């Protein structure tokens, strides 16, 4: 059975003053309207962010009793994982129509708690936290330092990612930095240093926001409101928790999740027209591009500089929004690009899109390939 995405939407973004459940409900209502479906037709639910019992809380709030649910907490990659689980559940007949949702009021609440809470009695808490790293930025900065040292890259290569993101944000009225004007490499480098070599402009935004995605069988999807976008392939990899564990900081799980997704889809990096890549920090994008095979080790800076692949066409987590966990918004934009709905930021001929989420401190990785129904 082929499974397709039939509805997508964001909630209000930026500084909203709305609760997590309000933002989720906004996004859900809009995504259902996008699909031409009623809430009563949803019998599968995957969500994270509301609480430790996210699916139960959101289901109760919506007044539904799903036959299948998932609340796997894997950070920003969880939503790409949910796509895989949803496809499998629909194929197995556990449910027919799955809703994936997320919401966060992080900026209104003046909190970074999703990124800043460490559980007690873990190796990370015992052996890393005593040194006072800023979680998670110091860990990403450590990877960035290793990248610059081992692969001969420069801080300008990191900065180029933020510059590219701003270029797309200027074309997206919903982007938090839409009116901020162009960004230059020199401006990125001149920003306050947060954790060397990452400046403030190398780090993602902190915003409110949410999103929702609806999936069902392709057979059913053909009778709905929008052109269906088919799930072609998916893959994931979980590598570590604390940063003392990896044997090689630059061999991320992106490599394996990407290989699995491409193999399942029968595609390669050369077939992708547009990519939505988790950009919690600029180093995340460089290692993701290399890990997915779009370019070789140490080549990502020049790859971005040459604008060889359209990616993060909303402006990304660096200039569009970043509500704690950003992975679901990657899927929303990937679907819209395949549908051809993105106006001035539309990538011509975008029939194959890739969305890649990263969670924790390069801990979890999940890749989804989407394509136009033919």
Could you name the key traits of this structure?
374 residues, alpha/beta, Peroxisomal Thiolase, Chain A, domain 1, nine-stranded mixed sheet, two-stranded antiparallel ribbon, 14 helices, 18% strand, globular, Thiolase-like
Task: Kindly describe this structure.
- The chain is globular.
- The strands form 2 sheets. Strands 3-2-4-7-1-8-11-10-9 form a 9-stranded mixed sheet, with helices on both faces.
- It has a single domain, classed as Peroxisomal Thiolase, Chain A, domain 1, CATH 3.40.47.10.
- It has 14 helices and 11 strands.
- 36% of the residues lie in helices and 18% in strands.
- The model has no long low-confidence stretch (mean pLDDT 95).
- The longest helix has 16 residues, at 20-35.
- The protein has helices at residues 20-35, 54-62, 78-92, 113-116, 123-127, 137-151, 155-169, 185-190, 218-221, 254-265, 282-291, 300-305, 316-319, 327-339; strands spanning 3-10, 44-48, 68-70, 97-104, 193-195, 198-199, 209-217, 229-238, 274-277, 352-359, 364-372.
- It is α/β, with parallel strands linked by helices.
List the helices and strands and how they pair.
Layout lengths: L2 E8 L9 H16 L8 E5 L5 H9 L5 E3 L7 H15 L4 E8 L8 H4 L6 H5 L9 H15 L3 H15 L15 H6 L2 E3 L2 E2 L9 E9 H4 L7 E10 L15 H12 L8 E4 L4 H10 L8 H6 L10 H4 L7 H13 L12 E8 L4 E9 L2
Parallel strand pairs: 2-3, 2-4, 9-10
Antiparallel strand pairs: 1-7, 1-8, 4-7, 5-6, 8-11, 10-11
Strand fraction band?
15-25%
N-to-C series of helices and strands: EHEHEHEHHHHHEEEHEHEHHHHEE
Name of the CATH architecture: 3-Layer(aba) Sandwich
Structural class: alpha/beta
Helix content: 25-40%
Q: How are the strands of the biggest sheet laid out side by side?
A: 3-2-4-7-1-8-11-10-9
Kindly report the oligomeric state of this protein: single chain
Domain Thiolase C-terminal: 235-371
Organism: Nonomuraea zeae
GO molecular function, one term: acyltransferase activity, transferring groups other than amino-acyl groups
Protein name: Thiolase
């Amino acid at each position: 059975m082929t499974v397709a995405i039939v509805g997508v939407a964001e909630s209000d973004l930026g500084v909203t003053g709305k609760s997590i459940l309000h933002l989720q409900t906004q996004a859900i209502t809009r995504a259902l309207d996008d699909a031409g479906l009623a809430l009563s037709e949803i019998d599968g639910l995957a969500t994270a962010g509301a609480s430790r019992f996210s699916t139960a809380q959101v289901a109760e709030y919506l007044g539904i009793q799903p036959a299948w649910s998932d609340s796997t907490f894997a950070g920003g990659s969880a939503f790409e994982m949910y796509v895989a689980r949803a496809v499998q559940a629909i194929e197995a007949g556990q449910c027919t129509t799955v809703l994936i949702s997320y919401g966060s009021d992080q900026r209104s609440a003046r909190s970074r708690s999703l990124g800043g809470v460490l559980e007690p009695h873990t190796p990370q808490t015992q052996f890393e936290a005593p040194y006072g790293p800023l979680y998670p930025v110091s860990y990403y900065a450590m990877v960035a330092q290793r990248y610059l040292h081992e692969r001969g890259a420069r801080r300008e290569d990191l900065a180029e990612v933020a510059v590219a993101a701003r270029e797309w944000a200027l074309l997206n009225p919903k982007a938090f930095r839409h009116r901020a004007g162009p960004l230059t490499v020199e401006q990125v480098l001149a920003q306050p240093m947060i954790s060397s070599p990452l400046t403030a402009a190398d780090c993602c935004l902190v915003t409110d926001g949410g999103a929702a995605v609806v999936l069902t069988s392709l057979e059913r999807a053909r009778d709905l409101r929008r052109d269906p976008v088919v799930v072609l392939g998916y893959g994931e990899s979980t590598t570590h928790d604390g940063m003392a564990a990896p044997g090689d900081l630059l061999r991320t799980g992106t490599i394996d999740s990407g290989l699995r997704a491409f193999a399942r889809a029968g595609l390669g990096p050369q077939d992708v027209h547009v990519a939505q890549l988790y950009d919690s920090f600029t180093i995340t994008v460089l290692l993701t591009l290399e890990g997915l095979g779009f370019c070789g080790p140490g080549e990502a800076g020049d790859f971005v500089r040459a604008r060889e692949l359209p990616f993060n066409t909303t402006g990304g987590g660096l200039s569009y929004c970043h509500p704690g966990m950003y992975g679901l918004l990657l899927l929303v934009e990937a679907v819209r690009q395949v549908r051809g709905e993105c106006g001035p930021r539309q990538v011509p001929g975008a029939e194959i899109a890739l969305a890649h989420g990263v969670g924790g401190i390069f801990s979890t990785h999940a890749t989804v390939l989407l394509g136009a129904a033919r």
